[in-house]
Amino acid sequence: MTAATTVTLTCPDCRHENEIERIFCHSCGARLDRSALSARKMPQTEAPEEIQKRVQGMFNQRKARIRSLFLQALKLTLAAGVAAMVVEMLIPPEVPSQKKSDNLPPHINLDLEMMIQYHRPPFLRYDEEGVNGFIANTLRTQKGKLNHPLVDFNRAIVRFDNGRCGLTMERSIFGYSFYTTGIYTVELRDGKLSSFASGGSIGRLQIHPQLMKYAGFLFGDFVTAMQREAKQLSRVGSIEFQDKEVIFAAPR
Question: Into how many domains does the chain fold?
């Protein structure tokens, strides 16, 4: 077994071995030569440049970690937002249930033609149920224009409010219904019928009016199927939408 080596200071006068903490010899009191200790290697100090690099590296790692956490949180937020939008799009809006009525729908086209030709009666008034019944009966023979590959047309529903008309299209893919709605103001001037989008939705996801300007393709097949009726409406005197009903006036 090897004993540990103890560092000592040897007195130059009496050769006594002294502890390295002593300045004077414990035996004879002579001053000890401590220059031998300075020859020993002292711990090497780190250069300021190296310290700066090491500290910057620590902060850079922290920044990278914060950036990574921020990007992960952003991705989760975007994913949650997209999921919420999809859910809103799949929830059906508040529309009347689809049911068969024993009452025959009004012959709106015949009534309008009589009013246009003979100005009798001066006004025609229809509620939402009557108009929706007329539309359903008219579109029954237009399914070829309304069905598309993988997408089947189910029905079209109109709703009337003060100064506005809402159109909801119910379509289905593999039996699952989805709904698109447009809210429009209608203007009849100089025999020309124009509509302007003021809002809309897909399911219950609200669409900004500015975006609805470019969503006409969602209702293009309906407009084509009802083109004859639209031409007839352009010949009336005026169209007024009130709460749950529409009023047509004879031309002057």
Answer: 3
Dist. CA 93–CA 202, nearest whole Å: 9
Residues 113, 232, single domain; the answer is yes
| Stated pTM of the model | 0.70
Ramachandran region, residue 203 (left: φ > 0; alpha: ψ -120 to 50; beta: rest): left
Position 139 in a domain? yes
Is 74 among the domain residues?
yes
Q: Taking the mean position of all CA atoms in its chain, how far away is CA 157?
A: 26
Q: What's residue 144's pLDDT?
A: 82
Compute the distance between CA of residue 79 and CA of residue 54 in angstroms, rounded to an integer. Answer: 38
Specify if 55 maps to a domain. no
> Amino acid letter at 244?
K
Phi, psi of 33 (to 5 degrees): -90, 105
Residue 153: is its pLDDT beyond 70? yes
Identity of residue 89: M
Residues spanned by the domain of 217: 108-249
Q: Answer positive or negative: Cα dihedral of 209, 91, 161, 217.
A: positive
| Helix, coil or strand: residue 120 | coil
Residue type, 52: Q
Radius of gyration of the chain (CA): 45
Same domain, 74 and 150: no
* 232: in domain: yes
Pair 139, 201 in one domain: yes
Task: Please report which confidence band the pLDDT of residue 41 belongs to, taking 50, 70 and 90 as the band edges.
Answer: very low
> What is the C-alpha separation between 224 and 235, in angstroms, rounded?
18
Structure tokens at 77: 């937020």
pLDDT tens for residues 206-231? 999 899 888 888 898 999 999 999 99
